[in-house]
Structures are given as structure tokens and as C-alpha cells.
Automatic annotation (TrEMBL), chain A:
This is ComF family protein. Pfam families: Pribosyltran. Belongs to the ComF/GntX family. SUPFAM superfamilies: PRTase-like (SSF53271). Transmembrane segments: none annotated. It comes from Lysinibacillus antri. PANTHER family: DNA UTILIZATION PROTEIN YHGH. Residues 116-202 form the Phosphoribosyltransferase domain.
From TrEMBL, chain B:
One of its GO terms (biological process) is DNA recombination. It comes from the Bacteria. SUPFAM superfamilies: P-loop containing nucleoside triphosphate hydrolases. It comes from Lysinibacillus antri. This is DEAD/DEAH box helicase.
Length: 203, 475
């Protein structure tokens, strides 16, 4: 990992003046990519023990702005912003990490898979077992409509690779839970032992 | 109305009769450089126009082999700062692709992005324009205005150095009129959206016969082929080889000083021999040096239009204001100052160095008067709040540097809290001081720099104001 990789805050462009400390030399910590002022604007989300979905941050103004720049303005570089926290949470996971996939047409439009990119930057290995079968998005649908949506994932791998294994689904944001539930059901029906989920944001 | 164009396009050698060019599409693209997939027209139409050579297509990013590694250039914003080029695995072109972060707010440009430039016939602009303005010039304004008009007519660059409140906008009117009447296309650019929003209706009113558009972030789509464009400097990235005259107002404004990127943007939007005019109250030494070296035309107006001197800032210590405010207390000097303004019914602005400090201070000030409000850059109600102050519906506003320029409020009194902070450069402080005493009926007023130690920037600002007053009044 290069040290002066990011000289300015990726969000507000303020100089970062990263100090070379022993902590950096001795541990394998990621160099910072945003300044502490920007960092403070993100609110941690505290997942309670019995929740099956773990999330790192609340959806507030700063997060809305981040998501807009990353996902819709396509500033791919911003995948680095939360890499240390994502790494911290996923590096020791024993379950198989599998991102929620994008439809190929959507992927061509965005030019990058935003969930995969978060994992890549955080140095977390992952595998795809699912395929998205519709280009429709959940945005703009009522809860009723969302609930009524037919299954929009299908299995990409042979069931032997799924059977009796533990999975951790990864997505950028958790709102109604429908996306995660659909994906979860496909894996469970194929014989998965357990399916949990992790998202960067809790809507 | 639709035109049939018969091979007006000299760049292709086949004759295509029968492709009907929609003026709407042509007018949108003339002078612009636009991401193909972001065009506000159906992609099939764009496809057809490309096929018939009505567009020149260029790649978003070019690279050339450098000594050690590749050197990238953004073909939209001309950025060459290599640290602003990001490389990643692209799922559209299926290879390592590069995008420019410098102009990403205008829609991302990558190595696999097509940029479109209109390649078809360009209609002539009308020459019949009128200036509907019955104001009068002071002697200094009249002289500067004439000098500017002369420079532009001779395709000469020009700098207007005018104090805050000199009536800069009016000075531009005759020069713009002369250019329009020759069928020239004119762009007036300024770094701030607020200034665009203030200037646009003023120009609209005095040029009733001219098609003019305003461009800024999230501006509505406007109809017709505009001959006069008022835009934020950011929007210039979306034009190329488009204008016969470019005027940049407040060229020095934070945060986009007349830096390399902006210079490049300005030079690419104007036609090669077209003149550039800069208008500013606080020209940087770099601009002044350039003006001298390249023998630009130069006009200097040290006096305000109403003939009164600029209010001179006073310095007041406000030791450890930061800690006091953090503890929930406004320093007593500041309380006195604010209470005095409220008692005398004088509208006031109090500038803060950071949003954070202002955020803590706002409820404290509201204990002095519940109607006191605060504004910052991302505040969506910014315009309404300023209007409320102007209409005397609220006693005063707390603000970040966002209101340092462009706004005019009758009899406004100004305090700067933490004037020693880095963000308050001498030019920012001059601009802030320039808010005071602009109205002919209230030509004086308070401008106080409250500080935790005097900086050279504060001294420079005060000395420059004193120097301008000396120039203007020979005292
Ligand atoms: Zn660019
Ligand atoms: Zn690409």
C-alpha cells in the first residue's frame, strides 16, 4: 500500500497532511482518504445482537451525498473512503462473501459494480453465486409493489457449491430488506446452511 | 420550424439531401462540447446526425507516452494534472479505463466516452439589439466603459480594476451592446452561482431584444440559440471555440482563483483571436503582471459610483473567541456590537470562518434576537434568507464566506469573527468590507475585524482600502 496515495481529502479536497506514525509503519492500516471533518459527518449505525443484517452507517445527508457521487456521478475512486471499516468488519468472516450482483445492462451503464468495488478496495476476496434477472430497480416503488415483486435473482453456480455452506451477502444499502431476502431465499433453497448480510448503509 | 440543409457541411464530401436538421438540436450543440450519452435528445437521433457528419466525435481522454509513464489530458476541461486522472477496470470498454476527476461534476468523462462537437452549418447571429438603460455614468465609469469597448473592438484583452461598489456591471453594458450589434456571441462568466442569478435578470431587462441564457448547476433547459450567455466558470468546461468575446467577472473569487484550470477553460471557450476581459476589485499580482507583460488594456476605478470613500475596517481583539463560543458564551464585545445594531435597527452580517463554529454560535445569537438566522454554501434557503434581511424581516444574518461578494444590502453593518483565520485572505476581507456603504443614502457603516491576533492578510486588506481611498480622493 502506497503511503501518500491520497494527498487530499477525496470528499472536500482539504490537504490530508498524513503524519508518518509508528502505527502506520507497524500495522497494515490503510492510509486515510478523507479528512476528519468529513469523517465526522458520517453517523455509525449500531447493529443490535439479534439483527441478521449488519450495517456500518446511517443514511444521513453526508451519506446521501456520498452515495450520489459514488453511484450516480460514477466517481469510482470513492470506493476507497470506507475501505478500512469494511476491511475491519469482513476480514475475519468465515462465511463466503458474496456481493449482490448487478444486471449486465446496468453494469455497462454504470461501468463498474459498485458493491464489488467496495470489497476490492478493502482487500476482501469475494465470489459471485447469483445473477440478476431484471433491470428494474426498487427505487420509486411502493412497499406493496416491492413486496409483490417476483424473485429477481437466480443461481449462477451449481448447488454443490452452496450446500451446507455459510454465506454473507454484501450490499451498499439496506432499506426494505427485499433485495437481501430474495437473494437469501435463492441460496437457502439451494441448500445453504446459513445466510447473513452486511451493508455499508442502513436506510 | 424546420430547415432543410443541403450539404452546408464542408467537412463531408457526399451530399445528403433530405436529412432534416431540427433547429432545437442544432441550437443546443452550437459552441458546446457534450457527452454523447448525456444529450437531452433521443440517442437514435444523435446516431443519425453522427452518421451524416453533423457531429465531430472525439474521445474523452487522450494519452501520450511520456518519459516515465503515460501523460493524460481531458479533452473536455483540458486538465493535465495527472493526480486527477483515475484508472479503473471499466465494464463498458472492458479494459483499464481512465476518468477525469477535475470536471466530474459536469458528468464523468472517461477514455471510452464520446464527446460531441457540432460540425454542421452555424447560423449567423442577429445584429439588431438595443440597450434599454437610462442610468448615468460617473466620469470614471464612462471612461472605463469607453476603454473596455475600444479594447474589445480591437480584439485586445482588458482588465477592469474597480473597487467594490464602483458599478462594474453597468460599465459592461455599452461594450456588450457593441459586440452584439456586430453579430458577435458574448459570454459573461463568474465563479459563483449567486452572481449569475443576480446578473441574469439585470441583463435580461436591459437587453430586451437579445436571446440570453443563464447556465449554472441544475439550471433549467432554455430555448433558442443564445447570443449572450451568463454562466458560472464551471459551466465553461461544456463549451469550446464558441465565443467572440469572453468577460470574466470577479475573476479572483474564492475558491476558483484565476488559476491554471480556469485560464485553460477561458481560452478554450473563446475563439482564437477573441478578446478576454477580466473585471475584479482585487486583482492578484499574477493577473497584474500578465496585464503588464502582455500589454492588456487597463481601467482603474478607485472611487465608488456615489463618490464616497470605502469604509475602512477597524481591528478589535476577541481573544479565545473559539473556546468561549464552544462553552456556550458569545464574547461580550460581540454581544455589545450586535445589541447596538438591533437597537439602531441596522441590518447586519457576521462572518464566521467555519460552518461548525457558526453552528454553535447560531442558537447563542438567537438568544439576543430570535429572528437571527445563519446561511452557508449548501443552504437551500440561502436566497430567501438574504431577501429577508434585505426586506428588514430579520435583524441580521450569520454567514460563512459564501456571502463575501455579489450581495448588496442597504445600510448593512459587518463584523468578521476570527478574521485571523486562513480562509480570510486579504482579497476575501476586501470583498467583505466592500459590502458596507454601497447605498448612496448610507455611504458609511461599520466593518469590524474581530480577531485572535492580527495577520498580514488583515493588514494588507486594510492598507489596500486606505490606498484606494487615497487614489480616489488624493488624501
Ligand atoms: Zn476533465
Ligand atoms: Zn471505459
Amino acid at each position: 500500500m502506497k503511503r501518500n496515495e491520497v494527498p487530499n481529502c477525496l470528499l472536500c479536497n482539504a490537504p490530508l497532511n498524513e503524519q508518518m506514525t509508528w502505527k502506520y509503519l507497524l500495522t497494515n492500516a490503510f492510509p486515510r482518504t478523507i479528512c476528519s471533518e468529513c469523517e465526522q459527518k458520517f453517523e455509525p449505525y449500531h447493529t443490535t445482537q439479534n439483527q441478521e443484517v449488519t450495517s456500518l452507517y446511517k443514511y444521513n445527508d453526508a451519506m446521501r451525498d456520498f452515495l450520489h457521487r459514488y453511484k450516480f456521478m460514477h466517481d469510482t475512486l470513492l470506493a476507497k473512503v470506507f475501505r478500512d471499516k469494511i476491511h475491519e468488519h469482513l476480514a475475519k468472516s468465515k462465511a463466503i462473501i458474496t456481493p449482490i450482483p448487478m444486471h449486465p445492462i446496468k453494469l455497462k451503464e454504470r461501468t463498474f459494480a459498485h458493491v464489488d468495488q467496495l470489497l476490492k478496495e478493502a482487500n476482501i476476496p469475494y465470489q459471485h453465486f447469483l445473477e440478476k434477472t431484471t433491470t428494474e430497480t426498487q427505487v420509486g416503488k411502493s412497499r406493496q409493489q416491492r413486496l409483490a415483486t417476483e424473485q429477481f435473482f437466480k443461481l449462477k453456480a451449481s448447488p454443490e457449491n452452496i450446500k451446507n455452506k455459510d454465506f454473507l451477502l454484501i450490499d451498499d444499502i439496506y432499506t426494505t430488506g427485499i433485495t437481501i431476502n430474495h437473494a437469501k431465499n435463492v441460496l437457502l433453497e439451494a441448500g445453504a446452511k446459513s445466510v447473513k448480510a452486511f451493508t455499508l448503509i442502513r436506510g | 420550424m424546420q430547415y432543410k440543409l443541403h450539404n452546408h457541411n464542408h467537412n463531408h464530401n457526399q451530399t445528403y439531401k433530405g436529412l432534416i436538421i431540427e433547429p432545437k438540436i442544432r441550437d443546443f450543440f452550437i459552441g458546446r462540447i457534450w457527452i454523447r450519452t448525456n444529450a437531452p435528445f433521443p440517442q437514435e437521433k444523435i446516431e443519425t446526425y453522427i452518421k451524416y457528419n453533423y457531429f465531430k466525435r472525439i474521445l474523452g481522454i487522450s494519452s501520450k507516452r511520456g518519459f516515465f509513464k503515460k501523460h493524460y489530458t481531458c479533452n473536455r476541461c483540458y486538465n493535465e494534472n495527472q493526480s486527477e486522472f483515475i484508472h479503473y477496470e471499466c465494464a463498458r470498454c472492458n479494459q483499464l479505463c481512465t476518468y477525469c476527476r477535475h470536471c466530474i461534476n459536469m458528468g464523468r468523462v472517461t477514455s471510452c466516452t464520446d464527446l460531441l462537437i457540432w460540425n454542421g452549418a452555424k447560423p449567423k447571429f442577429p445584429t439588431y439589439h438595443i440597450l434599454d438603460w437610462d442610468g448615468t455614468f460617473t466620469e470614471a465609469q464612462a471612461q472605463a466603459s469607453q476603454q473596455l469597448t475600444d479594447s474589445i473592438q480591437q480584439n485586445h484583452n482588458h482588465l477592469i480594476h474597480a473597487v467594490c461598489g464602483a458599478g462594474k456591471t453597468e460599465i459592461l453594458f455599452p461594450a456588450v451592446l457593441a459586440a452584439l450589434q456586430q453579430g458577435k456571441r458574448v459570454c459573461l462568466a463568474t465563479p459563483r452561482t449567486d452572481v449569475v442569478l443576480e446578473l441574469f435578470p439585470r441583463f435580461q431587462k436591459v437587453f430586451p431584444n437579445t436571446i440570453l441564457h443563464a447556465y449554472y448547476g441544475n439550471a433549467p433547459q432554455q430555448q433558442g440559440l443564445p447570443q449572450l450567455i451568463i454562466a458560472t466558470t464551471h459551466q465553461l468546461y461544456r463549451f469550446e471555440n464558441a465565443f467572440d468575446v469572453v468577460i470574466v467577472d470577479e475573476a479572483d473569487a474564492f475558491p476558483y482563483t484565476f488559476d491554471k484550470a480556469l485560464q485553460k477553460a477561458v481560452f478554450k471557450v473563446k475563439k482564437q483571436s477573441a478578446p478576454l476581459a477580466l473585471v475584479t476589485a482585487t486583482p492578484s499580482p499574477q493577473i497584474l503582471a500578465k496585464v503588464k507583460r502582455e500589454k492588456w488594456g487597463y481601467s482603474f476605478i478607485p472611487k465608488r459610483y456615489h463618490g464616497h470613500p470605502l469604509p475602512v475596517p477597524t481591528f478589535e481583539s476577541l481573544w479565545s473567541y473559539n473556546k468561549m463560543i464552544a462553552k456556550g458564551k458569545i464574547p461580550s464585545k460581540l454581544i455589545q456590537w450586535t445589541k447596538m445594531r438591533i437597537a439602531q435597527k441596522e441590518p447586519f452580517l457576521i462572518f464566521f470562518p467555519t460552518i461548525q463554529l457558526m453552528g454553535i454560535a447560531t442558537p447563542l445569537f438567537q438568544q439576543l434576537h430570535e429572528d437571527i438566522l445563519s446561511v452557508h454554501a449548501e443552504d437551500v434557503d440561502r436566497k430567501e434568507k438574504v431577501t429577508k434581511l434585505r426586506n428588514e424581516e430579520i435583524p441580521g444574518l450569520l454567514t460563512t464566506t459564501i456571502l463575501e461578494r455579489g450581495i448588496t444590502i442597504k445600510n448593512v453593518q459587518v463584523a468578521v469573527v476570527g478574521a485571523e483565520s486562513k480562509i480570510f485572505t486579504s482579497s476575501a476581507l476586501i470583498q467583505i468590507s466592500g459590502r458596507v456603504g454601497r447605498n448612496v443614502n448610507y455611504p458609511a457603516g461599520e466593518i469590524v475585524f474581530y480577531h485572535h491576533g492580527i495577520t498580514t492578510e488583515m493588514d494588507e486588506a486594510r492598507n489596500e482600502i486606505l490606498r484606494l481611498n487615497k487614489e480616489g480622493f488624493g488624501k
